């Protein structure tokens, strides 16, 4: 295998690893390719499934046709891989299954958003949190320096959402429009999981706002 294909495979594996711990769901990727000289990573067929341990019937929550990531290759080389700058993320062809919850419960989009924003998986007893905070300074001294992940411009195009009732099926479609986020003023995700969460939260938040502004829902 060429080095570009190997790195593409690694990118695929890393994205798929950002699953149940950070999202409480599974992510799959059809293919990831690196164009080193252009400084681009192309990801196709990215699917985010519905939250685990849920009874949502739709085949998936979100599917993305193509992601083009433009990287600062010189920064990556100069830092020996310790600083990764994603100058631009262009996401094209997003399909969302917005499935309503049973008996007025949370939709799949709201459930995933809550998890991303930490309302459930970060809830811990105060005593446990204090013990973890006391350990942090000692642990940080022992840990090697982490890879820095810098996010720039995020553009999401051609986003469509279908609203599904658990019993009736499709009831309407949502107009999401273009999502344009500029994080170039200094947003640092810290690691790949942070970058994935940042993008997913932007897309799901826009979908949620569109749902709230739809009179029929």
Overview of this structure, please?
- This protein is an alpha+beta fold and 217 residues long.
- It is 31% helix and 37% strand.
- Strands 1, 2, 3, 4, 5, 6 and 7 form a seven-stranded mixed sheet that branches.
- Helix 3 (108-116) crosses helix 5 (192-212).
- The longest helix is centred in the C-terminal third of the chain and has 21 residues, at 192-212.
- The termini are far apart.
- 26% of the residues are buried.
Please provide a brief summary of the model.
This protein has 217 residues and is of the alpha+beta class. The chain is 31% helix and 37% strand.
Segments where pLDDT lies below 50 for 5+ residues? 119-131
Shape: elongated
Secondary structural class:
alpha+beta
Strand fraction band?
A: 35-45%
Q: What is the count of β-strands?
A: 7
Q: What composes the largest sheet?
A: 7 strands, mixed
Mean pLDDT: 80
Order of helices and strands: HEEEHEHHEEEH
Helix content: 25-40%
The radius of gyration computed from the alpha-carbon positions, rounded to a whole number of angstroms, is 19 Å
Tally the helices: what do you get?
5
Separation of the first and last Cα atoms: 50 Å
Secondary structure blueprint with pairings:
Blueprint: H1 3-17, E1 27-35, E2 40-48, E3 62-71, H2 73-78, E4 83-99, H3 108-116, H4 126-142, E5 148-165, E6 169-175, E7 179-188, H5 192-212
Parallel strand pairs: 4-5
Antiparallel strand pairs: 1-2, 2-3, 3-4, 5-6, 5-7
Helix pairs in contact: 3-5
